[in-house]
Amino acid sequence: MKALVYNGPEQLGYQDAADPVPREGEVLIKVAATGICGSDMHAYLGHDERRPAPLILGHEVTGTVLSGPNAGQRVTVNPLVACGTCAACLRKQENLCPNRQIISMPPREGGFAEFLAMPVSNLEEVPDHASDDAAALVEPLACGWHAVRLGKRALGDHADGARALVIGGGAIGLGAALCLGAQGIDNITVVEPNTLRSAFLQRKCGLRVLTPEQVKTEGHFDFVIDAVGYAPTRELASAVTRPGGVISHIGLGSGEGGLDIRRMTLQEITFIGTYTYTVEDFRATAKAIFDGRLGPLDWVETRFLSEGAAAFADLRSGRVASPKILLKPDMTGDKDV
C-alpha cells in the first residue's frame, strides 16, 4: 500500500509500506480520510519521543470495513485501544488504561495510509447521510466533548449560564467550542492570535474570537478550556478564570510553566487535566455529529495523501486558515477545491 511515512524531523515520504495484517478480533479498513492532529505536528517536528521514525502517523480516521462479517460498513475509528480488564477500564475510564495503545504510536501504525487494521470494538458505524469528512472529525471533537463534560461536572450547579473561554482556534479548540454549545453552554469566546484563522472562525463558524491581548480586558470567565497547552496559554487561563472557576486543560504543547499556582490556590480554581476521551465520550460525540448537534462541520480542507508533506509544511508556516486538514488516499476520488 501507499502511506505517508514520518522519516525524521520535517521529513515525510509518500512511499510504499507493508499492508497491515489484522490480528485476532481485528478487521481491515480501507481508509477514506485521516485528519492531521497537533500531535502529528509535534511528531513531524521531532518533539514527540513517543513517535520515533520511521512511523505512519495519523489517528483521526474513517473508512470502510473490508473483512469480517461487517465488510462494507462505513466506520469511524476510536484509535485508543485499551485492555478492557484493568481498574481504569472497569471504571469506564479507558483513556487512563495503563496498557493502552493508540494508532500512530508503536507498536501500532497510524492512518495516513490506504489501509488500517483495528479491533472491531474500536469502530463506530457511520450512517449513510454522514460524510467521510464529518466522520473523520469524531476523534478530535471527542477530546472537546470529554473536556466539557468534566468541566461541567466540576462547575456543578454553576454550569448554567456559565461564561466560557476557549484558548486556541484549531480543531481541538473549535471542537471544544462546539461541544460547549451542544452541552448547554452558549456564552463562548475563543482566543486565536493567527489573524487568518481568526477571520475564518468568525466568518465560517460564527464565533466570537479575540486576541490574547483583547481577552485580558474581558474580565473573568467561569470555565476556561486550554486547547493549546503552552506556558503562555496556561498563564492566560489561570489569570482570567474567576474565583471558584474551572480550567480544563487539553493541550499538549509543552509541560513546563504558566500556571499561577498561588492565585489558583487562593481563589480555589479547579484545574482538570483531560486526556482524549472515554468510549462513552467517543460514542456521544459520534451521535452528536450524526444528529447535527455540532453544526454543519464544513470548515475542513481536504488534500490528497500524496500531498501530505506539503500540507504539514503549510500548517507549520501558518498558511492554513481552516482548523483541520484531512488527507485522503488518492484512490478515494477527487479532492475538494
Which key features would you list for this structure?
2 domains; Quinone Oxidoreductase, Chain A, domain 1; globular; alpha/beta; Rossmann fold
Write up what this structure looks like.
The protein is α/β, with parallel strands linked by helices and 337 residues long. It has two domains: 2-137 and 297-332, Quinone Oxidoreductase, Chain A, domain 1, CATH 3.90.180.10; 143-273, 3-Layer(aba) Sandwich (Rossmann fold). The protein is 29% helix and 26% strand. The chain contains eleven helices and 18 strands. It has helices at 38-44, 87-90, 132-135, 138-155, 171-182, 195-205, 212-215, 231-240, 261-266, 279-290, 308-317; strands spanning 2-8, 11-16, 26-35, 55-56, 60-65, 74-77, 80-81, 101-102, 115-119, 123-125, 163-167, 187-191, 209-210, 221-226, 241-249, 270-273, 300-304, 324-328. The protein starts with a strand and ends in a 9-residue tail after the last strand. Mean pLDDT is 95; it is low at 332-337.
Q: How many DSSP E strands?
A: 18
For this structure, what is the CATH class of the largest domain?
A: Alpha Beta
Order of helices and strands: EEEHEEEEHEEEHHEHEHEHEHEHEHEHE
From the spread of the alpha carbons, the general shape counts as globular
> Based on the structure given, which CATH architecture of the largest domain is correct?
Alpha-Beta Complex
User: Which class best fits the helix and strand makeup?
Assistant: alpha/beta
Q: Write the CATH fold name of the largest domain.
A: Quinone Oxidoreductase, Chain A, domain 1
- Separate helix tally: 11
**Beta-strand share of residues:** 25-35%
Amino-to-carboxy terminus distance: 26 Å
CATH superfamily (homologous) name of the largest domain: Medium-chain alcohol dehydrogenases, catalytic domain
Largest sheet: 7 strands, mixed
Output mean pLDDT. Answer: 95
Whole-number total of structural domains: 2
Uncertain parts = 332-337
Rg over CA atoms: 19 Å
Instruction: Work out the helicity level.
Output: 25-40%
